[in-house]
Amino acid sequence: QVQLVESGGGLVQPGGSLRLSCAASGIIFRLYHMNWYRQAPGEQRELVATITSGYTTNYADSVKGRFTISRDNAKNTVYLRLNSLKPEDTAVYYCNSKSTVASGLDYWGQGTQVTVSS
Questions:
Q1: Which of 50, 67, 76, 110 has the smallest number of Cβ neighbours within 10 A?
Q2: What is the pLDDT of residue 13?
Q3: How many Å apart are CA 94 and CA 22, to the nearest integer?
Q4: Residues paired with residue 115 on neighbouring β-strands, in sequence order
């Protein structure tokens, strides 16, 4: 079965940093694009960052220059480094994988809470 297991969330002060991890199993990891989404209370889920199977990256304007997505295919893991955190970054962050060869075939992690507060 497919599993995406997330870790690294927590409570930090404004200006602080976190690194989120998502470990995948049950898929040929190198053939999937990987994404991070987030969802704040009362808001729709937002695409935050993407890294393709070819290591191309893209970011939402709200996090560009502060967040960095990366992947380690040997460990079947995707990371999101969150720097210079702001209160508006508070949300549940979700890992997502999308097949490069099968339309509509994607999977989701359980989510991890990030809270930015003084």
A1: 110
A2: 98
A3: 9
A4: 11
Quickly list DSSP for 54-87: T--EEE-TTTTTTEEEEEEGGGTEEEEEE-S--G
Q: What pLDDT is recorded for position 40?
A: 97
Question: Would you say 22 and 82 are in contact if contact means Cβ atoms under 8 Å apart?
Answer: no
Beta carbons within 8 Å of 94's beta carbon, 6+ residues apart:
6, 36, 37, 38, 39, 45, 108, 109, 110, 111
- Please enumerate in sequence order all residues whose Cβ is within 8 A of that of 8, keeping only pairs 6 or more positions apart, or say none: 18, 19, 20, 21, 112
- pLDDT tens profile 57-90: 999 999 999 999 999 999 999 999 999 999 999 9
DSSP E strands: which ranges in the chain?
3-7, 10-12, 18-25, 32-39, 46-51, 57-59, 67-72, 77-82, 91-99, 106-108, 112-116
Whose CA is closest to 40, among 93, 86, 91? 91
pLDDT by residue (tens digit) across 8-59? 999 999 999 999 999 999 999 999 999 999 999 999 999 999 999 999 999 9
